[in-house]
């Protein structure tokens, strides 16, 4: 009953005119950037962080959540119409969606993606509303050693699961942790890694790092690719609406997609790619029309798209209750919280219930807006794909520079933006994941603080880190998560050598 009351109060906050406007801007921008290949919700939130610095925290976070939901849906439009997923989570959708578009059934493919996203997103938001309070009740019992162990789990799972190589992921994480050491040590008051530059005494700004790595780095990477494959946009022919048979074949995949997306998205090593491919595999096994798979089966679009949006809500469970980001966009949203002096976690539910429940309630509204907006505006999204890339990325560079100057006018800050941009380009060029750098910078100082607190309480005894059952279990999970990718990789090599 308490959840229903809290959700009702949150709905009253979300329905305020300004918050509705923020939600509308968020889902519109999110869909637009999801449609454009290579520009995802993480990049968009990173660009908007410095611009929203002085805006209302509740409205800005509602807009960021709308961008996340919209970006997850928008990627399906590109995947279906040009076989180029705007988001990595839309890769499974492209397998059948583009075949449907080439067969003149692009309308039903876009419709089942939109409705499936709405159904699964709504169910997942309900799940978020009811699961979050239970996790908060558990989290309030955590001591400093438990929080440190939890952050170690986040470090390991995020770095080991982003990208193809665990070593590269851990390297990215240590870059972020090193950047987190820059500034004044809160315990001793001594400067660390500031190299005599006064501007560095405040530490590295998360917004500058995020904008440099995601926006500037992405622009440089796109410029560096000389040979571009010409992308042919498939026209949306025939009716946009689904037939009775399409509905019959879609509703079960929507529900199964939610079943895959929400729980896996909520895991520290979740993300949206895993549940979408699991959903696609399940639909391929369960379909009554196996001959259509590979030629344009509607189940292969309905299931993955539902899993895609459900995982977005699942990602918000650990973010809001524990302060742990499990995706690049969640890391950007965590940076958004910290920009306003807010730390997601159990205390935030007690200190700012209006903000947290307003954000959760706004997700229902964002889902409805996505459904109403996307089908009528398919023509607009198709035209958006015609924007020349040089114009697009030149605009992103200008926007990134102006946003950084507006948030913190300093030559040092612009220099750091340029350095982080080059770093982001090199990481993209050599396939190093970017998200662990941001996670390391945000969570590194918090993990250091909790570790020092735990050691102070135990008078410097390091065994305190494994004396608590919670911390011992979490550190065990972190160790398994660290070792498992290397074992699996060696097993696959051994099997390949045997074959």
Output mean pLDDT: 78
User: What's the story with the biggest beta sheet?
Assistant: 2 strands, antiparallel
- Topology as a string of helices (H) and strands (E): HHHHHHHHEEHHHHHHHHHHHHH
Low-confidence stretches: none
Based on secondary structure, the structural category is mainly alpha
* Strand residues, percent: under 5%
How many angstroms does the end-to-end distance come to? 58 Å
Supply the number of helical segments. Answer: 21
Number of domains: 1
Strand order of the largest sheet: 1-2
- Coarse morphology: globular
Nearest-angstrom radius of gyration?
A: 22 Å
User: How many β strands by DSSP?
Assistant: 2
Portion of residues within helices: over 70%
Question: Could you please describe the fold and organization of this structure?
Answer:
With 499 residues, the chain is an all-alpha fold. The protein has 21 helices and two strands. Strands 1-2 form a two-stranded antiparallel ribbon. A hairpin with a 6-residue loop joins strand 1 and strand 2. Helix 6 packs antiparallel against helix 15, helix 8 crosses helix 19 and helix 11 packs antiparallel against helix 12. The longest helix is centred in the N-terminal third of the chain and has 34 residues. It is globular. The model has no long low-confidence stretch (mean pLDDT 78).
Jot down its keywords.
single chain, 499 residues, mainly alpha, two-stranded antiparallel ribbon, 2 strands, transmembrane helix, membrane
Briefly summarize what is shown.
With 499 residues, this protein is mostly helical. The protein has 21 helices and two strands. α5 (91-102) runs antiparallel to α12 (299-322), α6 (106-139) runs parallel beside α12 (299-322) and α7 crosses α8 (166-180).
